[in-house]
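FW: tagging you since you asked about this chain on Friday. Here's the raw sequence from the shared folder, copied in full. Didn't touch anything.
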Amino acid sequence: MKRIPRLIFPTLAFGLVVGVGAPAQAADKKPNIVMLMQDDTGWNDFGCYSGGGVALGHPTPNVDRLAKEGAMFTCWYGQASCTAGRASFITGRIPIRSALSIVVAPGDENALRKQTPTIAEFFKKNGYTTYFSGKWHLGDKPEAYPIEHGFDEMKSFAAYYPGVYTYADTSSWFHPWFPSYNAEFSKEYFGIVNMYEWEGVAGQPAKKVGEITWDYLATFDVRQADNAIDYIKKHAKDDKPFFVDVNFMKMHNPNNPAPKFAGKTHLGRYSDAMLELDDNIGRIMDVIRAEAPDTIVITTADNGAWQDAYPDGGTHPFRGEKGSAFEAGWRVPGIMWWPSHIPAGAKYDEMMSHIDCWATLASMVGLKPPPHGEWKGNDGKPIYFDSIDNSAYILGKAKHSARDSWVYIDGENFEAARFDIGGDPKNDDVHIAWKYTWTAKDTWLGPKQDLGSIGSLYCLTMDPFEKYDMVFNGAMSSRMQKSSPGQYAGEDNGWVLALIYPVIIEFDTSIMKYPSIKRFPGGASNDLMPNLQHPENPVPALDPAKPPNVKGGGD
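HL: got it, structure written out here
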């Protein structure tokens, strides 16, 4: 039977999958939900993924146990960067729709806005208490904080990964040229960069807990794990279930492992920090197993590994890295745990994603998720909701993933599309994944090549590492050949566009019908380049309704 692209027929797709595979609703209390989000972790870093862990010099027994007791996904998609990855989970939407597809910089006017519905708001309205900790990266001003967007409480909150902004710690790190001696510069810099740990509750101003220095950062994750454990213990016996979103600072480079783990592996900061991450996940899981076993747990990472940061970066077998349209930028470790519901030891090779967590979790706990397709924002205006209920696949009640298409948007650029097709009467167990790319970029901060009107084609089922371009018969992305792709038209495999084209058209139609929130290009200096290069058609750099330098705090 021919599969229906989820982006093409959203209303029909919703009708087919809503409620499928959802467990019977408990008479007294719904299951709890805990997200354990990692930062920049490599697909291959854990022992359960292709022999990582011990083989890489940093055993990960706690995450490996989680995979053994739950399900492991080999094709879990985050996004290509930190902000986008976190936005896709929080909003259940492709990040460009919410002006969150580009990394939010300190002082950025772009942030999570009130009109954008969040997963925390959804579960809060449906009887859950909601808690956030750790890295946010969806805005560094109070109006963007989690407690303004559906979370009842936040602790150990940081606006972004502070390790990349701790230039002032010249004695501990590697920026001796930082001009901290200049009072005017220091006032400007620290008036913009939010280098504080915060806590707070909804309806009240957030409070500073401490200033994040390089040394303070070392034990940040230990503290936030402690706080999460305290919250779970406190609320485990409540009448209301909890929705907990823990966001570790590890494994974003530069890593600064807690003193307990520093030097343990003899392989450097990354492997030491991996031991710490595994330990913190294990400590949280021990409490969940003992006191709140009816809990759905997810652990994953925001985006692909930043392999250029080696040896302080994650590992993976795929082409590219964070910030690339190739698979390494998007595929992240993904594990789900829910005893007696999710099959123990299962391994799923078809698509799951951050975007799909909202609809999937809602269905799994017995709630009706928002409709895939047209929905309403918090301001009452129509929006497009991308999340798909994948619960039947995860619970072992469907042979294939409910998601069969994907669009790869890095920043504000549409760079690739994927469609999985089945229906082979000889072997319906396998769905073939086809990916068509229009750009070639193998590093996050390196150059990107536009491939022009003829892109590259990869069969991810046979070639998940994107080594062989089926349009140019294996030619490298430089395209420095002297002739056309094939000796005759059939050799370029142009037929695949019949699969990819509907995915592209549906996404384009959704963007036209449900316009994205517009970004202010003043978030980072490179955002301003189009203004400077084309002054005849400028875009407002900052929100004219707000002063440019607003500190990131409450009190």
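FW: The two ends are 60 Å apart (CA to CA).
HL: agreed, and The chain has three domains: 30-402, 409-513, 520-550.
FW: great, closing this out.
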